[in-house]
Amino acid sequence: MLKEQPHRRYNPLRGDWVLVSPHRTQRPWQGQVEKHAAPAQLQYDPGCYLCPGNSRAGGASNPAYTSTFVFDNDYAALRPDGIEEQLNQDGLLIAESERGICRVICFSPRHDLTVARMEQEEIRRVVDTWTSQYEELSKLPFILSVQIFENRGEMMGASNPHPHCQIWASESLPNELEREQFSQSTHRNSRGTCLLCDYLRLELQAEERVVCENASFAAVVPFWAVWPFETLLLSKRHVTGLDQLDRAERADLAEILKRLTTRYDNLFEVSFPYTMGFHQRPADGEEHPEWHLHAHYYPPLLRSATVRKFMVGYEMLGTPQRDITPEKAAEHLRALSEVHYTSRASIAPTVRKGL
Ligand SMILES: [Zn+2]
Ligand SMILES: [Zn+2]
Ligand SMILES: [Zn+2]
Known about the structure:
The chain is of the alpha+beta class. It is built from 6 helices and 16 strands. The two termini are 21 Å apart.
């Protein structure tokens, strides 16, 4: 059934379904590597508002930073001040005030790098910054959720190529976290175990959806993946947040982030666009043993550097759908080299057959 026949798969983390239509990929499908010259990138761009020493909108200037750099977003979607207000009209028109803090983290002073092309030690410093930001923002009494996320590439609406991510810390749980909170606590209450620990065990046994792993983390194309090359990065030990990782695990996280993003870039030999982010326990001071630290990667590309998947039509009105199975997607990602295509000696035009 799972290989040939249309079927739907359940996502126990979100409590919804995805439609899989594997028969639609029976035609030979070619993963095309398009050789369009990538625009030469500068290590420092005088016009970039994230580069060291440059001035930002609103008059602030960046210091001459040499590693990571964190600042409050000049165009923050949330603000820490504000009066608490609520609206409820007939149980239908409901609104409430929302406070929060939005920050930007520059991964590196280098304008031209991406996670895939940074040194592992540099990524490790980014992991440390994520962790200290999570700790710092979690301690604020009005903050319930700390969402760290990276939008990479113009296709994902990231207008600035400078390697950076955002943190939105909010007073309420965002939709996705609320759904996962519900699923994980339901699982723990009914079975006494962790949903994602149980799931990871199944994936490591089956192996067919595992993309890469190290001693502390595994990246899989989840059984219920919606995006063609979506992955889920799971800690092997049951931890509820980045702050519970030990030194070796933080180093392993940096290592697997580099390996996974390198595989992504090598898939179509392009700087792979994606939205990624970490999900961890709510910041209400409770233990939340039901929560399992993980990261989602949602890349939009389908068949080449320019052919993307759209979530339209049936997917907007009904259920998300995919053609290439998660097992096939994992197979393609697993077959790729972990040496970045830009650092290989000769780059001959290639078309990988039979993808
Ligand atoms: Zn820059
Ligand atoms: Zn767990
Ligand atoms: Zn999640």
